[in-house]
Design a protein that fits this description.
The complex is a heterotrimer. By secondary structure, chain A is an all-alpha fold. Helices cover about 75% and strands about 0% of the residues of chain A. Chain A has two domains: about 55-135 and about 255-315, Cytochrome c oxidase, subunit III, four-helix bundle (Four Helix Bundle (Hemerythrin (Met), subunit A)); about 145-250, no CATH class. In chain A, α2 (about 30-65) packs parallel to α12 (about 290-315), α3 crosses α11 and α5 (about 110-140) packs antiparallel against α11 (about 245-280). In chain C, strands 1-2 form a two-stranded antiparallel sheet. The chains are: A mainly alpha, B mainly alpha, C mainly alpha.
Chain lengths: ~325, ~180, ~575
């Protein structure tokens, strides 16, 4: 390419700098296309970094799961597949409304775009509300991450209280030694709950929603015995788990909280970004010519969805 | 000169107005959503109702990858994007794979030693965990008004031979 | 507020021609600027400040080693206790690595010069650029907080289980969080540079008309994007481990401490290439400019940068030969580590071939460039015994390792940074620095550097372990020489600071092209205007290393191009 060929383009650039430069086109770009390409490129590179950041957690997950499969098996029983599935659906739908909002922005459909962004935002809210319900339930039962994982000790106390109160029924007396004798296999035959049957494992965490944070542990225990098919002598035993199983499961809740908390943080950031483009869209700042921000926020929101698509089966459907 | 020259191209093909964007038809977006929802149902169904042992994970991951691909290609417009963006995504995925596989390669190196150690020292419960939990549990019990006098501070329950990690992993699948 | 501007006015005169320094006035205009050149200058100041902080810690460490603590009373060293010593070497490492070397060349020099090299008006995302500067500041503030909260003594590598539980120092969490924030700054700069190089090249500039510094920054950006996020998650997990005891790295809770090392080095090994690649890019510019000869093997240098970036990802395990990593992994990592020598040597040979029959001019910039080649080669070659598993078992965690990475990092990156600073100083501030003063500083720095670190190879190979407050009397002579070298370096850096600051006040006005450079930054005034080039006369790129038609005008001490740049390259 020679000097002569380039000169017109160059002259055009210089001319262009002085007039016909729309307000939304930054001074250092020559054309809207150049600006849009740069922005998309930067966004995809950034999304690559997000994938690698979550990649670290997926790596931790893989290694822990391989080293402590039993922990993952015991722990996942306490997650509600129903809530997880509902959250997946909520995110998928909000991803769809987001994609539609981008389309609306491209077609200059301003009010439709605003409405769809609002729906997307609501989807994010719904996701976070469900997540809060799930988190609250976990913390109530001492199934938090790290130092908040107190389930084994609570379980032991419950056992002791049941014994001292002398309320151990004949069924309990039989079930407990069986569990002691041959581990989870026996526990499972005694109590068909873990994993295999959707209704009970889904129902139990729904039960957690019941506001019982101030109830004494004893009452808590009674409440859980009630919906634990009357077989276990406490909430954990109702899931077929001994204190020892709970000790093992600690690992699972650490990775569960690690992954979902980082994802939840991304949902919150995504919601803030959606609110920002929503306000800008209401002011009519976007048009068929310029809608890059909607597009980029959309990409971010889809990434959040994408990560959840992997988290759901890995955490809830072991 | 055959090298690409984006700057010059932009200037030459410049005609004020819209950037080259692909508008995805609404019918296509809706179709993708329906597919995604069906796949979500499928993944729950296979995980809960079908029992293929370790293959369940593989099936779940295949379905998740299919869902992810749909989201990337259509919701994220990757089908109509510039090559660079696809390269960025694929490179990121390759490096995640590299990271996980090499770290994992290393992690199981001492599995035999661990198993031998476990066989020789049949105390499966790490003391740190139970004591860590016990530090916090009385507070929690006190908060909830429980009579924690009743709680005996016995050490961790004795471990059982039958509960080696291998057995533990296999047992649930049997059920 | 107005002092900055009034001092700029005194330097350039109230009616100097408009440039980026006097385009807007007041401190506020600097703090909110979107101009990549001003952001680069702010980075430069911050980075030099961090360098001073890290340098202070280094001098403290070397002073402590002036005498063997074995002769002193227990816990009473030459000047400090063992705990203070531990926090000093940690501060030195952490400040130098996270605050100085990693952002040093890309964020300070790169920010200033990259868009000008490309013939662009700014980087692709100017607001993001400012944000990444403030993230850098935020990270630096966390580091200072860590110091105020009791410091830390984990070493810059934050190895578990020490960092995750046992270290009694209060500064661990803020320092780790600071490194996390700095990681974000690094990622955003990389994203910005990548997009800039893709979309904002001047007319006529294809990928192979980019100056080689741009190629090295491209390779660096790729590493930053792919590796830094893993550091981010590692540090978050470390904080979670320390605060919540989640158990991921703690074997007592079912975790794996070696896993931390995998996580950490997956970032931190590529990170050493984040440190050295931009330095190699600077050296390519220095060697070509001061040999006044077209760079030899352009494409080889360009692609060797990418090769180093890629291979750099596959060798992290060579830090873990004695950490309980599997023998299989160790063998693979050792093998790949050796292959890194190939692209590195390709660069060195190409630089040598560039100088062959060139008209070499020993400016201060060139002196640092030549020092780089010599010192980097020494540092690189001493890496080979460390990459060999059997010898590494002996040399691991000794002063041999310390000397090796200082030869690469200080002799490599810092020398290239200083060379680049001399090279682009006239472009940055429009003033020529004293050549004699700069030469004296170079003699002190280069001499002091070798005096400091060469004895460390010797004592390391004899078994002196690193990070020890206390040492056997037989190592005393090496430590003594090493500490004297450190003081000489300190004198050199002070001299350099004086020379550069003095040039701002008394320096001769710089011509547009004082060195005979051929890349686009020499086609604009020194310092450049706000939008880098005269808008009516935006640059057109050709062969970036066409030295054929550049002539020296002795009257103005300026180089001028007599015919337009050719677009064809001879090789």
């Amino acid at each position: 390419m020679s000097q002569v060929e380039l000169s017109p383009a160059q002259a055009h650039d210089a001319e262009n700098a002085h007039h016909d430069h729309p307000e939304w086109l930054a001074h250092h770009f020559d054309t809207p296309d150049q600006q849009n390409t740069s922005a998309k490129m930067g966004m995809w590179a950034f999304l690559g970094t997000e994938i690698l950041m979550f990649g670290g957690l997926f790596c931790a997950y893989a290694i822990w799961r391989a080293n402590h499969y039993d922990a993952f098996w015991i722990g996942h029983v306490y997650l509600s597949t129903a809530w997880g599935a509902i959250n997946t659906v909520v995110l998928l739908i909000s991803s769809f409304t987001m994609a539609w909002a981008v389309r609306a922005a491209q077609l200059n459909q301003r009010s439709l775009c605003v409405g769809l962004l609002a729906l997307t935002f609501l989807g994010g809210c719904g996701f976070m509300v469900i997540k809060t319900i799930e988190y609250t339930g976990k913390f109530e039962h001492g199934l938090g991450p790290g130092i908040w994982y107190t389930a084994p000790a609570i379980s032991k106390q419950l056992d002791a209280m049941a014994e001292t109160a002398g309320t151990a029924s004949h069924a309990d007396a039989e079930a407990a030694p069986a569990t002691e004798a041959s581990g989870p296999a026996a526990a499972e035959s005694a109590n068909p709950v873990p994993g295999t049957s959707l209704p009970s494992s889904a129902a139990a965490p729904m039960g957690m929603v019941a506001p019982a944070p101030v109830a004494p542990v004893g009452h808590d225990m009674a409440a859980h015995s009630a919906h634990g098919h009357g077989e276990g002598h406490n909430y954990y035993a109702a899931h077929g788990h001994t204190t020892e199983d709970l000790v093992t499961a600690r690992t699972f809740f650490s990775i569960y909280f690690g992954m979902t908390a980082l994802h939840g943080l991304h949902v919150l950031v995504g919601m803030a970004l959606i609110l920002w483009v929503l306000l800008r869209a209401r002011r009519g700042e976007f048009s068929a010519e310029f809608n890059t921000p909607v597009d980029l926020v959309g990409l971010y929101w889809h990434l959040v969805d994408l990560i959840w698509i992997f988290l759901f089966p890995l955490l809830y459907l072991i | 000169m055959s090298h690409s020259n984006e700057h010059a191209e932009h200037a030459a093909g410049h005609d004020h107005g819209e950037a080259h964007q692909h508008v995805v038809p609404l019918s296509l977006l809706s179709g993708i959503l329906v597919l995604l929802l069906i796949l979500t149902g499928l993944t729950v169904f296979t995980a809960r109702e079908l029992h293929f042992g370790e293959w369940n994970l593989v099936i779940a991951m295949i379905i998740a990858c299919a869902k992810g691909t749909l989201v990337v290609l259509y919701f994220m417009h990757m089908r109509w994007e510039k090559m660079f963006n696809a390269i960025a995504l694929i490179t990121a995925l390759i490096f995640v794979t590299l990271f996980i596989s090499v770290s994992a390669l290393d992690s199981f190196q001492y599995e035999d030693n661990i198993n031998n150690y476990r066989a020789a020292n049949p105390t499966r419960v790490p003391q740190a965990i139970i004591s860590d939990a016990e530090v916090r549990a009385p507070e929690l019990a006190a908060e909830t008004g429980a009579d924690h006098e009743a709680a005996p501070s016995t050490p961790a329950a004795p471990a059982k031979e039958s509960h080696e990690s291998g057995d533990g992993a296999a047992a649930p699948h049997a059920g | 507020m107005t002092t900055t501007q009034s001092s700029i006015d005194t330097i350039y005169g109230p009616d100097a021609e408009p440039n980026y320094l006097n385009a807007e006035r007041g401190l506020w205009s600097w703090l909110t600027t979107l101009d990549h050149k001003r952001i680069g200058i702010m980075y430069l100041m911050g980075i030099l400040g961090s360098f001073a902080l890290g340098g202070f810690a280094a001098i403290m460490v070397r002073t402590e080693h002036l005498s063997s603590a074995a002769t002193a009373a227990a816990d009473q060293g030459t000047i400090m206790t063992p705990d203070t010593y531990n926090s000093m070497f940690t501060l030195h490492g952490a400040a130098m690595v996270f605050l100085f070397i990693i952002p040093g060349i890309p964020a300070a020099l790169g920010n200033f010069i990259l868009p000008v090299l490309l013939g662009a008006k700014d980087v692709a995302f100017p607001r993001l650029n400012l944000m990444s500067f403030y993230l850098w500041m935020g990270g630096a503030i966390f580091f200072v907080m860590a110091l105020l909260m009791g410091g830390l003594d984990t070493g810059w590598t934050f190895y578990t289980p020490y960092s995750s539980g046992h270290s009694p120092f209060g500064g661990v969490v803020p320092a780790v969080f600071g490194a996390f924030v700095l990681g974000f700054s690094s990622i955003l700069t990389a994203v910005n540079f990548l997009a800039t190089m893709h979309t904002l090249r001047a007319p006529g500039m294809g990928w192979f008309e980019m100056p080689l510094f741009c190629w090295s920054l491209y390779a660096t950006a790729v590493i930053q994007i792919l590796a830094t996020p893993v550091l981010a998650i590692t540090l978050l997990l470390l904080i979670a481990e320390r605060v919540l005891h989640v158990g991921i790295f703690d074997p007592a809770l079912g975790g794996d401490p070696v896993l931390f090392q995998h996580f950490f080095w997956f970032y931190s090994h590529p990170a050493v290439y984040i440190m050295i690649l931009p330095a190699m890019g600077v050296v390519s510019e220095l060697i070509a400019t001061y040999s006044h000869k077209e760079i030899f093997g352009y494409k080889f240098i360009a692609f060797s940068s990418l090769a180093i970036a890629l291979l750099g990802f596959l060798v992290w395990g060579h830090h873990m030969f004695v950490s309980g990593q599997s023998a299989l992994a160790g063998t693979i990592f050792s093998l790949i580590t050796f292959t890194i020598a190939i692209p590195s040597a390709v660069k060195v040979f190409n630089w040598l071939a560039t100088m062959y029959k060139g008209s070499i001019e020993l400016t201060n910039g060139m002196l640092y460039g030549l020092s780089f080649i010599w010192v980097f080669s020494l540092g690189g070659l001493t890496g080979l015994p460390l990459a060999t598993m059997v010898t590494d078992v002996h040399l691991h965690d000794t002063y041999f390792v310390v000397a090796h990475f200082h030869y690469v990092m200080v002799g490599g990156t810092v020398f290239a940074f200083l060379g680049g600073l001399h090279h682009w100083w006239p472009k940055m501030f429009g003033k020529m620095a004293s050549r004699l003063g700069g030469f004296i500083a170079w003699v002190l720095i280069f001499g002091g550097f070798n005096l400091t670190f060469f004895p460390q190879f010797l004592m390391g190979s004899q078994g002196m372990p690193r990070r020890y407050w206390h040492y056997q009397p037989e190592f005393h002579v090496y430590h003594l020489i090493s500490s004297i070298g450190a003081y000489i370096q300190l004198a050199g850096f002070i001299t350099l600071a004086v020379v550069l600051l003095q040039s701002l006040i008394k320096g001769r006005k710089a011509a547009a092209n004082p060195w005979g450079g051929t890349t686009l930054e020499w086609q604009t005034t020194s310092p450049p205007p706000h939008l880098n080039f005269d808008e009516a006369n935006m640059p057109v790129a050709g062969n970036p290393y066409d030295y054929e038609n550049i002539e020296h005008n002795a009257d103005d001490d300026e180089y001028v191009r007599t015919r337009p740049q050719s677009t064809a390259r001879s090789h």
